[in-house]
Write a structure and sequence with these properties.
Blueprint (H helix, E strand, L loop, with lengths): L2 H14 L1 H13 L3 H22 L6 H15 L2 H29 L9
Helix pairs in contact: 2-5, 3-4, 3-5
Length: 116
């Protein structure tokens, strides 16, 4: 068994999944609406920026978090943007689940680094 061949099989399975196909369709739809596309890109960018700040240990910026929430509420008013975000979040969840399964399975041998 070649690990890289199995990885390519996993990629193919993800691309063949309904979640990925739905995401691709939503992506194609949003391409025709520059306002919706820009709104979503700005939202994702600001949301990731806030998440990175929090992971770096910075205290939550409530004003920034509120602005991001307002941006999301505007996205929900645009059907193409809302459909894209739903598909995006669903695909992200699938990828995160796969990553967790991989991480958990490899973590079994990482107890070597535990302090004792």
């Amino acid at each position: 068994m070649n690990i890289y061949d199995k990885t390519h099989e996993l990629v193919k399975a993800i691309k063949d999944s309904q979640e990925f196909k739905t995401f691709q369709a939503a992506k194609n739809e949003i391409e025709s609406d520059s306002n919706a596309k820009e709104m979503v890109k700005n939202f994702i960018s600001k949301h990731m920026e806030l998440e990175y700040e929090m992971m770096a240990g910075k205290p939550e910026d409530k004003e920034k978090a509120e602005k991001i929430q307002q941006m999301y509420q505007l996205i929900l008013l645009n059907s193409k943007a809302a459909s894209f975000m739903q598909a995006y979040m669903t695909l992200q969840r699938v990828v995160a689940d796969v990553y967790k399964i991989l991480g958990d399975s490899v973590a079994e041998g990482m107890d070597f680094f535990d302090k004792k």
